[in-house]
Design a protein that fits this description.
The chain is built from 9 helices and 5 strands. It has 231 residues and is α/β, with parallel strands linked by helices. The chain has a single domain (15-219), classed as P-loop containing nucleotide triphosphate hydrolases (Rossmann fold, 3-Layer(aba) Sandwich), CATH 3.40.50. Helix 1 crosses helix 8 (197-211) and helix 3 runs parallel beside helix 5. It is globular.
Length: 231
């Protein structure tokens, strides 16, 4: 279950939410919608992404997504290098000062893309990311489940190096994500990415409000009470 802000077991005073899913799932849209909702109730929000959340990450992103062929193991190591720097210089400091960090992709992406779809072993890629981040896990991972066909249609012909992979690759990625969510269901909110963006956003807000009293304002009182009547 998503920990409350007052939990003595929480490793930081902030909140860490990762948006995961295949290419074209709508992660960027949902992270921006949640940022606006959180800022509207007075929370400091850091919106970031992997790779590319830092200056170093932007350089790594260019190589990984817009460069020439990258060997699978090198690809995994570059993602891990980006993640290590991202967490050390941006994510962890923000969490320590009590901010909400929203990231478009985190370690589940590496496990799904390199560990499963690239067949580099799920456990090896997970362990690499855990080492790179000193074990920092999201408080909540929102998995936007999208089929390869849906993702391709949404991208509208704009494809980076990974997006150009065959549908079989993207289906392997999808299954990798779903397997992860089944292994640790308390940390995941799995949503059908084909739903309306506003509907998905409402589901995310309700999940956060249900487990974090300090975020209860994300859900209007009329929605939070039986019958839709104000309390």
């Amino acid at each position: 279950m998503l920990s409350t802000s007052s939990s003595p077991t929480s490793p930081h005073p902030g909140l860490f939410v990762a948006f995961e899913g295949g290419d074209g799932a709508g992660k960027s849209t949902q992270s921006r919608l949640l940022r606006a909702a959180l800022e509207a109730i007075g929370r400091e929000v850091v919106l970031t992404r992997e790779p590319g959340g830092t200056a170093l990450g932007a350089a790594i992103r260019e190589v990984l997504l817009h460069g020439d062929h990258v060997a699978p193991r090198a690809e995994a190591l570059l993602f891990a290098a980006d993640r290590a720097h991202h967490v050390a210089t941006l994510v962890r400091p923000a969490l320590e000062r009590g901010a909400v960090v929203l990231t478009d992709r985190y370690m589940d992406s590496s496990i799904a893309y390199q560990g499963v779809a690239r067949a580099l072993r799920h456990d090896d890629i997970r362990d690499l990311s855990v080492w790179a981040t000193e074990g920092l896990q999201p408080d909540l991972t929102v998995l936007l489940d999208v089929t390869p066909e849906q993702g391709r249609a949404r991208r509208r012909g704009v494809h980076d190096r990974l997006e150009r992979e065959e549908d079989a690759f993207h289906e392997a990625v999808r299954q990798g994500y779903l397997q992860r969510s089944e292994q640790d269901p308390a940390r995941y909110l799995v949503l059908d990415a084909s739903a309306d963006p506003a509907t998905l956003h409402t589901a995310v807000c309700r999940e956060l409000a249900a487990h974090r009293p300090d975020l209860s304002a994300l859900v209007p009182v009329r929605e939070a009470t039986p019958g839709g009547e104000p309390a």
